[in-house]
């Protein structure tokens, strides 16, 4: 494994902020294909850091014991927003900069924008494929899923099916995606899977384990690791979702949401998902029921809600 700091910025107190690329080169020096894994672009989304840890650990062991299986090159950027990660902040602190909203843009010369630009160029120069790993925001817990913008669906769906995610969610383009890493890499013909799993500031190992198996399988599928020497990992086909196949439940009242189900459960129409409570008066303000039958794949984790807050998302059963 070769370690390179692709961004190294001296901070005011004398230490350095670095974005590190770990590279596992091809055994014969001529990679068939190159892939990059990126995590921590949002500094409070720690699930991807753990997934990168799992990958680095497994690949190091493989390199020590079976170096001949590395037909391609694997790059891992395990902590793409070091300033944000140090303060558990989604944004690059001080500037309040979202690194995943400035990619491919001319957005000035702050430290954060320069770091984002250098990271993007490094990935462009070292990848034929990429995986960008995110977690949900502070409010929602998500089952492992891959988000695909409609215009890239033809190319990405066959690849996304090899990642062992529970869901692949195909959604329309929106303006805010134009400056994301995933959109820009896909526009540059570097097929990029954008993973969303768990919730920020937490690690749920049971939501990462299947993705780890999926990423190892993906490396075999792409011929980056030699499938002749390693038995392919088994992956489940994901449930592919289009916008009309997603129903959501929202709060009608402000209060404290207490859920009574878990993401990953199959729910019936009308089944209770939780309640919104009035803390001061000791009343139940509402029972929150499933609007349709299907797979519960998003659930409100942060209990404080206001009227209109998203509480749950359900992937509809085909017959619904
Ligand atoms: Zn994110």
UniProtKB/TrEMBL annotation:
Keywords in alphabetical order: Hydrolase, Metal-binding, Zinc
Residue ranges annotated for the Succinylglutamate desuccinylase/Aspartoacylase catalytic domain, each copy included: 32-221
Cofactor(s) needed by this chain: Zn(2+)
GO molecular function term, any single one: metal ion binding
Superkingdom assignment: Bacteria
Name listed for the protein in its UniProt record: Putative Succinylglutamate desuccinylase/aspartoacylase
Organism: Nitrospina gracilis (strain 3/211)
Organism classification: Bacteria, Pseudomonadati, Nitrospinota/Tectimicrobiota group, Nitrospinota, Nitrospinia
């Amino acid at each position: 494994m070769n370690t390179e700091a692709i961004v190294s910025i001296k901070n005011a107190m004398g230490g350095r902020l670095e974005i590190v690329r770990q590279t596992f080169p091809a055994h014969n020096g001529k990679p068939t294909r190159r892939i990059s894994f990126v995590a921590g672009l949002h500094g409070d989304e720690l699930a991807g850091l753990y997934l990168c840890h799992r990958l680095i650990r497994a690949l190091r062991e493989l390199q020590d014991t079976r170096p001949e299986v590395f037909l391609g090159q694997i790059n891992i950027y395990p902590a793409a927003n070091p300033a944000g990660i140090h303060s558990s902040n989604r944004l690059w602190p001080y500037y309040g900069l979202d690194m995943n909203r400035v990619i491919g843009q001319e957005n000035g010369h702050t430290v954060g924008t320069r770091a984002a630009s250098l990271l993007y160029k490094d990935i462009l120069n070292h990848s034929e494929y990429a995986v960008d790993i995110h977690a949900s925001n502070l409010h929602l817990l998500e089952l492992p899923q891959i988000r695909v913008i409609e215009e890239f669906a033809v190319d990405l769906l066959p690849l996304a099916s090899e990642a062992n995610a529970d869901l692949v969610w195909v959604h329309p383009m929106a303006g805010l995606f134009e400056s994301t890493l995933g959109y820009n890499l896909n526009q540059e013909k570097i097929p990029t899977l954008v993973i969303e799993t768990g919730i920020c500031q937490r690690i749920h190992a049971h939501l990462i384990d299947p993705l780890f198996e999926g990423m190892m399988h993906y490396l075999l599928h792409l011929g980056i690791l030699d499938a002749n020497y390693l038995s392919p990992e088994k992956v489940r086909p994901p449930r592919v979702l289009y916008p009309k196949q997603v129903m959501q439940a929202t709060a009608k009242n402000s209060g404290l949401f207490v859920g009574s189900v878990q993401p990953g459960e199959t729910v019936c129409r009308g089944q209770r998902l939780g309640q919104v409570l009035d803390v001061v008066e000791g009343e139940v303000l509402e029972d929150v029921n499933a609007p349709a039958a299907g797979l519960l794949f998003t659930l409100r984790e942060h209990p404080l809600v206001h009227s209109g807050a998203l509480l749950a998302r359900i992937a509809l059963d085909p017959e619904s």
